[in-house]
Specification:
Order of helices and strands: HHHEEEEHEHEHEHEHHEEEEE
Number of domains: 3
Largest sheet: 5 strands, mixed
GO molecular function, one term: peptidase activity
GO biological process, one term: proteolysis
CATH topology of the largest domain: Muramoyl-pentapeptide Carboxypeptidase, domain 2
Shape: globular
Protein name: D-alanyl-D-alanine carboxypeptidase-like core domain-containing protein
CATH architecture of the largest domain: 2-Layer Sandwich
Helix content: 40-55%
Domain D-alanyl-D-alanine carboxypeptidase-like core: 135-250
Radius of gyration: 28 Å
Bound molecules: zinc ion
InterPro entries: DD-CPase-like (IPR052179), VanY-like_core_dom (IPR003709), VanY/YodJ_core_dom (IPR058193), Zn_M74/Hedgehog-like (IPR009045)
Number of helices: 9
C-alpha cells in the first residue's frame, strides 16, 4: 500500500511538472509568434525540441501529451517559416492599389516618386506619340506602357498616343476651373494626380472605335493596366465612360479584375470580403491578403517576394508571389 501511494505521488508530481512546462513553452511560442523575427523563430524551434523531450519524460497520460503537442507543433512549424511584416501608416496611402475617386482623396504620399517629363526621356518613348511635350508620368508606369505598346505593335496595332499623364494639384485645379465638374475632378480626386494613370489615344480615330482602344480593352491587363471607367460601370465609378483612361494596378490584380469584370472599387471590396485569395496568372501563383489598417502586422512566409499597397482608406493589400 505504501509503495503504491508513493508511486502515485511521484506520478502526480511528474504530471504537474509536465503541465508547468507546457504552460511555459506555450507562452514562449505565442510570444515569439507575435514578435516574429526570424532569429526568434529559430529559438522557438530549439525550445520546441527541448519541450518535447521534457514533456515526454514528465507528462502523464499520452492523451494529455498529444493535446499539448498538436497545437504548439503546428504553430511553431508555421512560425519557423514565417516573418512578421510591419505595416506603416504611410503605406496605407500609397501603392499600386490605392483607390482615388470622389470619395477618396489622394494623399501626398500616394504620388509616384518617379514622375518624369516624357519628352526628355527618349529611352521611354518607344513606338507612341505624345500630344504635347509637357506630358509627365511615372517612369516605371511608362516602362510598362512601352512594353504594352510593343506587344500591340506585334499584333499590327501601332497608332498610340499619350494625351495626358500626371497632373500636379495646381494643374488639376486649373483644369477643374476650366472644364467644370462634369468633365474634370477637383485637385486630389483625380487618378492623374498620382502619376499612375494616363489617357491613351489613337492618332487615327476615336478610342471607342480605334483598333488601339479595342486592343487595350482586351490586352491591357497583361501589362498591369485596367480600363478604369468602363461603359457598364458608371454607377460604381461615378465617372462617364472613358475609353482612353487607363490606370496601372499591376499583376496579378489587373488579371483578376479583367476576369471578374471588376472596377477597382469592386475589386477592393472583394478582397476585403474574402481577406485572402489565391490566383494563378500565366503560370505564377499569387496569394493576396487584405489586412485591416488597425492590425498593422502580418505573418508572411520567408523567401517569398511580396508587395504592399494601401487601399488609401482603411486597409493594406499584401501580394505574395508563391
Ligand atoms: Zn484620364
Amino acid at each position: 500500500m505504501k509503495k503504491r501511494a508513493f508511486l502515485i505521488i511521484i506520478l502526480l508530481l511528474a504530471g504537474f511538472k509536465g503541465v508547468l512546462l507546457l504552460k511555459q513553452h506555450a507562452g514562449s511560442l505565442i510570444h515569439s509568434g507575435v514578435s516574429g523575427a526570424p532569429s526568434v523563430n529559430q529559438g522557438t524551434r530549439a525550445d520546441q525540441a527541448e519541450y518535447r523531450t521534457e514533456a515526454g519524460a514528465g507528462a502523464g497520460s499520452s492523451g494529455v501529451q498529444q493535446a499539448g503537442n498538436q497545437p504548439t507543433a503546428g504553430e511553431s512549424g508555421e512560425a519557423a517559416g514565417k516573418q512578421a511584416l510591419t505595416l506603416s501608416e504611410k503605406q496605407l496611402y500609397k501603392g499600386d492599389l490605392i483607390l482615388v475617386n470622389q470619395e477618396h482623396k489622394l494623399h501626398k504620399d500616394g504620388v509616384m516618386p518617379d514622375i518624369v517629363r516624357l519628352s526628355k526621356h527618349p529611352e521611354l518613348l518607344n513606338g507612341y506619340g505624345l500630344l504635347d511635350n509637357s506630358i509627365e508620368l511615372s517612369a516605371s508606369v511608362t516602362e510598362q506602357f512601352s512594353r504594352m505598346v510593343e506587344a500591340a505593335r506585334k499584333d499590327g496595332v501601332d497608332h498610340f498616343l499619350i494625351s495626358s499623364g500626371y497632373r500636379d494639384f495646381d494643374k488639376q485645379d486649373e483644369l477643374y476651373n476650366q472644364m467644370g465638374s462634369d468633365s474634370a475632378l477637383p485637385a486630389g480626386y483625380s487618378e492623374h494626380n498620382s502619376g499612375k494613370s494616363l489617357d491613351i489615344g489613337s492618332t487615327e480615330q476615336q478610342m471607342s472605335k480605334a483598333p488601339e482602344g479595342k486592343w487595350l480593352k482586351k490586352n491591357a491587363w497583361k501589362y498591369g493596366f485596367i480600363l478604369r471607367y468602363p461603359e457598364d460601370k458608371t454607377a460604381i465609378t461615378g465617372i462617364k465612360y472613358e475609353p482612353w483612361h487607363f490606370r496601372y494596378v499591376g499583376l496579378p490584380h489587373s488579371a483578376v479584375m479583367q476576369e471578374k469584370n471588376f472596377t477597382l472599387e469592386e475589386y477592393l471590396d472583394y478582397i476585403k470580403e474574402q481577406q485572402q485569395i489565391k490566383v494563378n496568372v500565366e503560370g505564377t501563383d499569387y496569394e493576396i491578403l487584405y489586412i485591416p489598417a488597425a492590425q498593422k502586422k502580418v505573418q508572411i512566409p520567408n523567401n517569398r517576394g511580396y508587395t504592399v499597397s494601401g487601399d488609401n482608406s482603411n486597409g493594406y493589400i499584401v501580394t505574395l508571389t508563391m
